[in-house]
Amino acid sequence: MKQIGYLLLIAVVLFSCKKEKEEKITIPETVTEKKEPPVIKEFGFNLNDFNVVRDTIKSGDSFGAIMDTHGINRSKVFEITNTIKDSFNVAKIRAGKPYMLLKSKDTTEKAQVFVYQNNKIDYTVIDFRDSIVAQKRKKPVSIVEKVAYGTIESNLSQTFDDLNLSFLVAYNMADIYAWTIDFTRLQAGDQFKVIYTEKFIEDSIPVGIDQIKAAYFEHRGKPLYAFRFKDDTINNTSDYFDEKAENLRRAFLKAPVKFSRISSRYNLKRRIKYYGNRIRPHRGTDFAAPTGTPILATSDGIVTKSERKGGNGKYVKIRHNATYETQYLHMSRQAVKVGQFVKQGDVIGYIGMTGNTSGPHVCYRFWKNGKQVDPLREELPTAQPLSEELRPTFINAITPLKNQLDSIQFNKPQEIL
User: Fold this and answer.
1) Which residue, 405, 417, 413, is CA-closest to 192?
2) Fewest CB within 10 A of the end CB: N or C in the chain?
């Protein structure tokens, strides 16, 4: 009996200890912190403070119609447009451009700010919360230097596409070498290196090429350097020079169309199928390209003809000086008028098939001292060279760029730095 009593006593003690421990266990309360929404800033505004409407200007839209849709009456629209007319003409908003409207977060949802995006960088803010103000602003842009290089397999644009490089770099390179390289006759094995800067907004969104600082193009085994340099003796403008400080520009472009191909050359003994395969001299150079491709003036000059006539179709003729004239045939339409001054590279018309032609192209004709000649065989005059006093400064400026280009090895994997 004593043993049973002891066992009962031990059981009671253990049970009371367990109960005491259970009573001491407490479950902490879960405290949930109230998180503030992340701050979203754009165009200089905290978007958390507004109801945000984003849209795109549509064909037929007007500033007044957009404002009316969002509850701004005509008298207020008139007040806004009249107040800001000297800083922003609302009639010039264009279809396809994005805009943002900031509205109050209360029950009225009153429109307060209109942001019109001119392009990826430039935008206009019309703020009519208290007073009415229009301001033209720019998004912060960062400039990043990059290096690219490669070997031509078929053509420049396809090579850039294969290397996942911006076509704008190829386009700018074609501009730089337009006077010294015929890009319609690139060969497989031609090589290039280029140092350029690219523009970014928000450090990640590319918005275009800033400039090409230096380039190297090896065409048919001939090395051609190009370095950007500002010549403050000639209107403080920048131009491209080779390693010997010779200007790459010429008085005439090599071709009136970018990235086209020559479909027929200047040939005084050519047989033409259209005329029964009889010999008819072809005193022009045909550049084939898709219909609508821009045709460029190959040099500065005055438009002397812009008309449609017989087998020429729609054409433009330009007098450049007492020595040179050029003509551009078979356009789908002209973009200039007689008496108009055009600069080298200006668009003067578009590729077409008017007149006697079997396919879309421009027939480019070239006169020297009143006689038609083959421009591809002419030794054309160069642009003004760099002055002697600037040459030492030029050499100092390009030396590190030339060393950087020379250090790039084509047999290494492509890297975009």
Assistant:
1) 405
2) N
335: left (phi over 0), alpha (psi -120 to 50) or beta: alpha
Radius of gyration for the alpha carbons in the chain, expressed in angstroms and rounded:
35
Alpha carbon distance 10, 87 (integer Å) = 95
pLDDT digit string, tens, across residues 218-252: 988 899 999 999 876 555 578 899 999 988 888 88
* Beta bridge partner(s), residue 367: 325, 372
Q: What is the pTM of this model?
A: 0.63
The β-bridge relationship of strands 133-138 and 141-151 is: unpaired
pLDDT at 313 over 90: yes
| Host H or E run for residue 342 | strand 341-342
Instruction: Identify which of 55, 49, 135, 48 has the alpha carbon closest to the alpha carbon of residue 101.
Output: 55
Q: How many residues does the chain have?
A: 417
Q: Report the amino acid identity of residue 110.
A: K
User: SS3 sequence, 50-115?
Assistant: CEEEEEECCCCCCHHHHHHHCCCCHHHHHHHHHHHCCCCCHHHCCCCCEEEEEECCCCCCCEEEEE
